[in-house]
Write a structure and sequence with these properties.
The protein has about 290 residues and is an alpha+beta fold. It has two domains: about 1-175, Sandwich (Jelly Rolls); about 175-290, Arc Repressor Mutant, subunit A (Orthogonal Bundle), CATH 1.10.10.60. About 50% of the residues lie in helices and about 20% in strands. It has 13 helices and seven strands. The protein has helices at about 1-20, 30-35, 95-100, 105, 125-140, 150-165, 180-190, 210-215, 220-230, 235-250, 255-265, 270-280, 285-290, and strands at about 20-25, 40-55, 60-70, 75-80, 85-95, 120, 170-175. Strands 1, 2, 3, 4, 5, 6 and 7 form a seven-stranded antiparallel sheet that branches. A hairpin with a 2-residue loop joins strand 2 and strand 3 (about 60-70). Helix 5 (about 125-140) runs antiparallel to helix 6 (about 150-165). The longest helix has 19 residues, at about 235-250. The radius of gyration is 21 Å and the shape is globular. The model is unreliable at about 1-10 and about 170-175 (pLDDT under 50). One of its GO terms (molecular function) is sequence-specific DNA binding. This is AraC family transcriptional regulator. InterPro entries: HTH_AraC. Keywords: DNA-binding.
Length: about 290
């Protein structure tokens, strides 16, 4: 049974990547919210119920109808408290929006940008209007209309613009243990960079400074939090995760060492070889030959 579930998850993600978009009603397609590749897709949810939403180093306690904006570059998790939870959700890739040459402005909106506020409290009247937009997207994606993607992008923009008219919710508290929370979101973001699936999308976050910037934190604060919780430095964790991925690529792909080096963010294979040998005591080519 486990293998069948894994194939289903993979098939769903491949289909979603191909289309670049999916809208669904929460409850009718609950499995979708669990299996999609969060690192690749932006998300907008309109939900009614009680929940705790952990977003970067903040926690939002929400009750009622909310509009949530998820950025794939910012770690977040969702705890549903209500026994009933209803609403709609849509997922879309950055490439899907880029086709309309609008993704840059949307990513800089106060909802998707780093350090922004991703949650809005929605009134009953606003909920009815937004419900209509989500239903239109769900129906439109089933049609054969030649310009349905453009129409769906317009619906996404309409949701964004409606949200811009509203005042962002400030109903959140810092996590009770801020140090643990910072370490947690760092590891969440670290894991989201993997696996490396092709050489066209190389690793971009490779240093403690890169991760601190992505999380809108000072690098010293990030380093202190990670060291306090784990006893090891941020850099050590990043290096170990890169080595783990390097081993997997050497053992389970036919990519040459130069391609692997590039996919892991190294400008030159020599830099990768030196890095790999320093941490493992051997070089990539030798490891591959030993595993064959």
């Amino acid at each position: 049974m486990a293998k069948q579930t894994e194939r289903s998850v993979s098939a769903y993600n491949n289909e979603l990547k191909l289309k670049g978009f999916n809208a669904f009603q929460i409850g009718q397609d609950c499995n979708t919210t669990r299996v999609y590749s969060r690192k690749d897709f932006y998300k907008i949810c309109l939900t009614t119920g009680k929940s705790l939403i952990h977003y970067a180093d903040r926690t939002f306690e929400m009750d009622g109808t909310i509009l949530f904006f998820g950025n794939p570059h910012i770690p977040y998790s969702w705890e549903t408290i209500s026994t009933t939870y209803t609403g709609y959700s849509c997922l879309f890739s950055e490439d899907f929006l880029q086709l309309a040459n609008r993704s840059e402005s949307l990513q800089q909106s106060p909802f998707f940008k780093l350090g922004g506020t991703p949650i809005l409290t929605i009134s009953e009247e606003q909920r009815d209007f937004l419900n209509t937009i989500f239903r239109k997207m769900i129906e439109e994606q089933k049609t054969d209309y030649a310009y349905k993607d453009e129409l769906i992008r317009n619906y996404i923009n309409l949701i964004i613009h409606e949200a811009l008219k509203l005042r962002p919710s400030e109903n959140f508290d810092k996590h009770s243990n801020a140090v643990s929370r910072v370490a947690s979101v760092f590891f969440d973001l670290l894991e989201r960079q993997f696996p490396i699936e092709n050489t066209d999308r190389p690793l971009t976050l490779r240093s403690a400074q890169d991760y601190a910037k992505a999380l809108s934190l000072h690098v010293n604060y990030l380093n202190r939090a990670v060291k306090e919780v784990t006893g090891k430095s941020t850099t050590a964790h990043i290096s170990e995760r890169i080595i783990t991925e390097a081993r997997a690529l050497l053992q389970h792909t036919d990519w040459n060492v130069a391609d692997i080096a590039y996919s892991l963010g190294f400008e030159y294979p020599t830099y990768f070889n030196n890095f790999f040998k320093r941490l493992t005591g051997t070089n990539p080519k030798t490891l591959r030959e030993q595993e064959v």
